[in-house]
Every structure is written in C-alpha cells, then in structure tokens.
Specification:
about 45% helix; alpha+beta; GTP Cyclohydrolase I, Chain A, domain 1; five-stranded mixed beta sheet; 2 domains; GTP Cyclohydrolase I, domain 2
C-alpha cells in the first residue's frame, strides 16, 4: 500500500510526539517500561489530536441560516456553551463556558452552529482573549453586520496547577456593532448573562 506525502509526514510527526512524551516521562524520573506507562505516549497523542480537532470551517458552519422564523429583529442568545481549550503558553487545558449573542438581519443561524463555532476556535492552542474576539469576528463576517457579543468565563490549569496555584477564573468579553453603541441592546445582553449563569 502506498502512502501519500501527507500520511508519511503525519506518521513521522506521531513518532516524534511519542518520543517527546517518553522523554518527558524520563525527565520526571519515571520508568517508561512499567505497565501503567507503556501505552501513555500513544494515549497522549490520541488525546492531543482530539483536543485540536476543529469541527469545520466558520464560513461553512455559519452558512446554515433560516428566514422562516418570523420577523426576528431582537437579540438571539446562546449559552452557557461549555468548551475546553489548551493554553498556548503552557499547553495546559483551560475549561469554561461561552455566552454568545447576535442581532439578526432577518435570518437566524441554525441552532447547533454557534456551539460548533465556539468549538472550532477553542480546539487549538489558544488564549482566552483571542478566542472571545474570534467568535464575534466570525459572526460579524459571515452572519450579521448589526452586532455580536461573546463573554467567556474559564478556569486555567496553568494557574490552578502551577504558578500561583489558585482557582482564578477569568472573564473576557467582546462586543461589536449594536452591543457597543446601543444601550438597550447592551442591557438586553447583560440581562441574558444574568439569567443564564
């Protein structure tokens, strides 16, 4: 069976990742030949690939809209949407929830699309501040020019397991369009956040 260049490249990368995990375990003073660790390099690789598997392209995800929902000219909100990501500074997980809203222009987004959008941007080495802005930027680009909003609250294991070693949840927000300029729209979003903790 012939393998493509991409498959050969991926196989080489997989081997390098597994070798790196073995080196990390040895650095920690572990016997990498003991039964509990024999499959750990492969398990780590499989878990890592799952953590960074992105579900689709935002333009395709947000292409499914509906105009038969009636006259929709008020905020549409989603959340809390649970997610897990990986801190790009330490490659340790951060886990949290996102509350996303947008001001529709007559059409509404398919119900599953916003959670998939959050997953798309969360499933990569990431920082929370960028993640928050990427979500609203995608909605603004592919769905509506009237405005979008995203608030994320997350706990970072790079703070809870190392460094300060404290439970320090972080909150980030991104508001665009009407959510920045229209007090009524902003208040509606704030009320949504308060009623969906």
């Amino acid at each position: 069976m012939a393998f493509s260049e991409r498959e050969l490249h991926d196989a080489r990368l997989h081997t390098r990742v597994e070798a790196g995990v073995i080196a990390m375990l040895e650095l920690a003073g572990e016997d990498v030949g003991r039964p509990g660790l024999l499959r750990t390099p492969r398990r780590f690789l499989e878990a890592w690939l799952e953590l960074v598997a992105r579900p689709g392209d935002p333009s395709a995800l947000l292409a499914t809209t509906f105009d038969d929902a009636g006259p929709v000219d008020q905020m549409v909100g989603f959340g809390p949407i649970e997610f897990a990501s990986v801190c790009e500074h330490h490659l340790l997980p951060f886990v949290g929830s996102a509350w996303v809203a947008y001001l529709p222009e007559g059409r509404v987004i398919g119900l599953s699309k916003i959670p998939r959008l959050v997953e798309h941007y969360a499933r990569r080495p990431q920082v929370q501040e960028r993640l928050t802005g990427q979500i609203t930027a995608a909605i603004d680009k592919y769905v509506t020019g009237l405005g979008s909003a995203c608030q994320i609250r997350a706990t970072h294991t790079c703070a809870t397991m190392r460094g300060v070693r404290k439970e320090t949840p972080m909150t980030t927000s991104s508001l665009t369009g009407g959510f920045r300029t229209d007090l009524a729209a902003r208040e509606e979003y704030l009320a949504f956040l308060a009623s969906h903790p």
